[in-house]
Write a structure and sequence with these properties.
Number of domains: 1
Strand content: 15-25%
CATH class: Few Secondary Structures
Number of helices: 3
Order of helices and strands: HEEHEH
Largest sheet: 3 strands, antiparallel
Number of strands: 3
Structural class: alpha+beta
CATH topology: Factor Xa Inhibitor
Distance between the termini: 17 Å
Helix content: 25-40%
CATH architecture: Irregular
Shape: elongated
Strand order of the largest sheet: 1-2-3
Low-confidence stretches: none
Length: about 60
């Protein structure tokens, strides 16, 4: 049986940490920064850990 290919869209958006959690960049960091405070911008810039249910699907797309 052939190997499953890695989903090229998923590999650009998600990473797997050393402990096996799936992280992504938070949403809301593309535009309209003049309306957002610096505090909000810093908070949105942090990586977000996905819930376990979503991480299961993403790991399958990443071939892990």
């Amino acid at each position: 049986m052939p190997k499953q290919k890695t989903h090229s869209g998923a590999k650009k958006r998600f990473r797997i940490t050393g402990s096996g959690k799936v992280v992504k960049q938070g949403s809301g960091m593309r535009h309209n920064f003049e309306h957002k405070s610096s505090r909000v911008t810093r908070r949105l810039n942090a990586d977000v850990v996905l819930p376990k249910q979503d991480a299961k699907v993403i790991k399958k797309l990443l071939g892990k």
